[in-house]
Amino acid sequence: MNKLFSLLLGTSFLILTSCGGGWSEDQKNIVKNECITMGGYDCDCYVTKATETFKNPAEYNKKASELNEKFETAIEECEVQVEENDDNLESF
Q1: Who's near 77: CB < 8 A, 6+ residues apart?
Q2: Best label site of 48, 71, 75, 77, fewest CB within 10 Å?
Q3: How far apart are CA 31 and CA 71, in angstroms?
């Protein structure tokens, strides 16, 4: 639930703060945090591909089919192997 909330909050922030002027560092950090939540990607690479593909956060949020296909192809380079961890972690 917390991951879903973070994703929704991040997306809402991008929608509300994007004014077509490119990417601010805060907006890049939000995309990076979304990437971390998703897992499976080198998130610095993911952010770079997002900012190269989409001119601004509004385009990223809209993800028009043409640009989205280009982005999906681009982020394939960013995929990383995720090691499964069978260790039981204690929670405090």
Answers
A1: 45, 49
A2: 77
A3: 13
